[in-house]
Amino acid sequence: MRLLSHMLSRFVQAGHLRVTDAGGVVHDFAGEQPGPFAAVRLHDPGLPRKLFTAPALSVGEAYMDGTLTLEDGTTLRDLFSLYGHNFQALDGYPLQALLNSVGRRLRRLQQHNPVGKAQEHVHHHYDLSRELFELFLDDDMQYSCGYFGDGVGTIEDAQTAKKRHIAAKLLLDDAKNVLDIGSGWGGMAMTLAELAPVEVTGVTLSVEQQKLAEERARQRGLGNRVKFELRDYRELDQRFDRIVSVGMFEHVGAAYYDEYFGKVRDLLADDGVMLLHSIGRMTPPGNTGPWLRKYIFPGGYVPALSEVLAAVERQGLWVTDIEILRVHYADTLAAWNERFQQQRERIAKLYDERFCRMWEFYLLGCENEFRMGTCMVFQMQLARKRDAAPLTRDYITDTERRYATMAAAAE
Hints:
The chain has a seven-stranded mixed beta sheet with strand order 7-6-5-8-9-11-10, with helices on both faces. Strands 2-1-3-4 form a four-stranded mixed beta sheet. It is an alpha/beta fold. It has helices spanning 2-11, 47-53, 55-65, 76-91, 94-105, 107-110, 117-126, 130-136, 155-170, 187-195, 207-219, 257-267, 290-295, 305-314, 328-342, 344-350, 353-371, 394-410, and strands spanning 14-20, 26-30, 33-42, 68-71, 177-181, 199-204, 226-230, 240-246, 268-281, 318-325, 375-383.
């Protein structure tokens, strides 16, 4: 406990952390700056050593296993808020700085995503029970950042706005066919086909997603214009007028960025346009946290824009537009967590209590990263030709308004 206390005394620069060890001894760590309060109890005498040597992994594991519990009215959100105020101090602690450096050197191994292995990683997360995702996502099962513009109050509205925003950037009026890389449960592909007379091919590595997407397309009368294939995008050889990819790029891995954008270039028509929607970081290149990598997204990585742009440049593509969504994903995750908590009893029956604690740690931890940490979302429009997209951005807002008017008239 002495080593852990030394680290925590350096860690808490703002706010107040109270730790009760397995022997019942209370340890208080108060920063010089105001901030949130959190109180935890450690139930395993061996836990302080784990927390000292690997806090980024061990806190989440201990919460899942029940060997770390919250006290004195503390919520998990309070604990993450305390971390959000102090994470830079923890990263600067000598042992943690060393471990982070070693992790960055191993990231190519941790992000090993060749054809075949990538499907194993996708199966770990996206082939969970369909009912799980139906319980906390919006009606269209959009599992990516919503778009909270003026007047948007619900997660359904935010996801509808996100799809229209992306569709507007794709310039569908001049397109005949569209490729959706990482098509999920099919909502984006079907929306594009409903907004414009285009044929859409979605590819996914998730068996469950592909099955449900096909079923939903038939139910919406789109089976003749929208199809979904269980296939790696790297196996395609057809060219497309438009390409969209939402929430898939985080699973590519930094070592594969040149391969990814090289394939996009080969699949894109000469006057084609692509819209890439991905989580990013506002810091230099880093690494995926060990807990998230082990339990939620094996092989995943949130890129720095410097890494993405360098690969785009090497593959000879034009960046015709970039937009940064900063807090939108925090609000999305908050909405998901609220619904998750409302359905917690049903989810515990699907899996168990440990699974519920794992997922609330995931949802709240990620929300905190977007609200207080270094994560954001970027939308990058790409083309092979400099004039494939209009030279000003007015068309985006104009098209979104047209789509909204179309939807209102159809009601």
